[in-house]
């Protein structure tokens, strides 16, 4: 009997080693998370999927700045991953890929579950395919972000001000940080600290996402609901001029660091963490969450962890924007993060299966919450998780989203992904502050480029 069992075991081993019996694999590319807990939640979901299906997930993770170049190279070579996600696909490439017929229509996955999603979420993945001459779900949504203000409360106090001194109106708000807090802090500390961290780098998504919120503050609509350009309207031009003047005046008045014209996405965070800026605007609460991550990091010293806890709990504030220049409440645009399955993916059936599994509430929620508040959920159920009421930072994010959001232009006209990718918005800023052209001329150049690309 032992010989029979041993022979059967040897035969099983031989079969499993044979090419015909190789374990099935799913090739997954995913952006590297900001925090260990974010990646750990992804790894846990993958492990559960492997156990359930017997499929081996071949995971490759890359930094956010590397994801698009690597994906484009894989598409050009005809060997894309089976399924892929990056934090930048939505604003820079997904619409163009869909238009060119490079993405798989996954409406069969998304349609049955679409009632689970909150308003202004899955619309970002409903894209137009010019080859198929139709709109469909050519992507899936996982999480979303919007613009927040974060400031050091203790630095504000050192400057001699309290939080209730902060104005709630547009012009007065930005003047407060620039003309009052900055000089007062410098006088109190004899240090060259800046009142505002204002992202302006051409290689930064923060710069254009922030600037477009200034555009929203002036009630400018660049496209209509059908995607048609509105930039020939004199009111649109006037609004863009006002927005660009407001945005660049902060730098021109010396209230944002000189290096902010070349900042990349992490740099406004770094300046804030180093306390060289008192306030900044950022398209997540990753700034506050960094200190929470420190507080939870067992590899740091007790002193470092205590510093992180104090910063998160006591010293950093998260807030929304002041009222618009016309006195109305700010409505925030949301950047809904999109992943894709490619038309040329080798294992589309398993990619669909993995996607369905990942979008289950019990798998998606830990992944989103693992980012410590950096991302807000796209599903109605996860938005009501106690996680979002657990502290003042997350509650501020919750309140901003619950007040209503707007989509980006590329959801109506995919060509705006091209404009975002080349960052016509930050180029206009730099024309004003670095090359000393007039705001009007910079806006006219920007409008000309928008018409050239997106008509």
Automatic annotation (TrEMBL):
It holds the Pfam family SBP_bac_8. Residues 1-22 form the signal peptide. Keywords: Cell membrane, Lipoprotein, Membrane, Palmitate, Periplasm, Signal. The keyword Chloroplast does not apply. It comes from the Bacteria. It is found in: Periplasm. Belongs to the bacterial solute-binding protein 1 family. This is ABC transporter substrate-binding protein. It comes from Reyranella humidisoli.
């Amino acid at each position: 009997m032992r010989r029979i069992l041993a022979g059967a075991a040897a035969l099983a081993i031989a079969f499993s080693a044979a090419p015909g019996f190789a374990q099935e694999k799913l090739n997954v590319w995913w952006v590297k998370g900001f925090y260990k807990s974010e990646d750990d939640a992804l790894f846990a979901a993958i492990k559960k999927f492997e156990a359930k299906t017997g499929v081996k997930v071949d995971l490759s993770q890359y930094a956010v700045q590397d994801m698009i170049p690597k994906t484009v190279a894989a598409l050009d070579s005809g060997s894309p991953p089976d399924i892929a996600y990056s934090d930048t696909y939505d604003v820079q490439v997904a619409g163009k890929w869909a238009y060119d017929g490079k993405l798989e229509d996954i409406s069969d996955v998304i349609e049955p579950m679409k009632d689970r999603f909150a308003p202004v979420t899955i619309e970002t993945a409903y894209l137009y395919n010019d080859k198929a001459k139709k709109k469909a779900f050519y992507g899936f949504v996982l999480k979303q972000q919007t613009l927040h203000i974060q400031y050091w409360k203790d630095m504000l106090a050192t400057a001699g001000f309290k939080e209730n001194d902060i104005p709630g109106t547009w012009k007065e708000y930005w003047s407060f940080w620039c003309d009052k807090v900055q000089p007062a802090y410098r006088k109190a500390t004899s240090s060259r600290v800046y009142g505002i961290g204002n992202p302006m780098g051409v290689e930064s998504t923060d710069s254009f996402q922030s600037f477009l919120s200034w555009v929203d503050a002036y009630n400018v609509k660049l496209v209509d609901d059908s995607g048609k350009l509105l930039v020939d309207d004199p009111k649109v031009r006037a609004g863009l001029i006002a927005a660009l003047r407001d945005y660049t005046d902060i730098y021109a008045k010396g209230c944002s660091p000189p290096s902010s014209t070349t900042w990349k996405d992490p740099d406004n965070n770094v300046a804030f963490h180093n306390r060289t800026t008192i306030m900044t605007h950022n398209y997540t609460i990753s700034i506050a969450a960094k200190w929470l991550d420190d507080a939870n990091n067992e590899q740091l010293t007790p002193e470092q962890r205590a510093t992180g806890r104090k910063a998160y709990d006591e010293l950093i504030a998260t807030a929304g924007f002041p009222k618009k220049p016309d006195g109305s409440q700010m409505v925030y645009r949301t950047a809904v993060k999109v992943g894709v399955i490619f038309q040329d993916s080798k294992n589309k059936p398993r990619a669909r299966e993995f996607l369905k599994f990942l979008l289950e509430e019990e798998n998606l929620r830990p992944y989103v919450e693992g980012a410590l508040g950096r991302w807000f959920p796209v599903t109605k159920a996860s938005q009501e998780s106690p996680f979002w009421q657990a502290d003042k930072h997350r509650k501020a994010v919750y309140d901003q989203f619950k007040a209503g959001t707007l989509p980006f232009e590329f959801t109506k006209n995919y060509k705006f992904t091209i404009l975002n990718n080349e960052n016509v918005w930050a180029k206009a800023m730099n024309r004003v502050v670095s090359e000393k052209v007039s705001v009007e001329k910079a806006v006219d150049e920007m409008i000309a480029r928008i018409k050239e690309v997106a008509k």
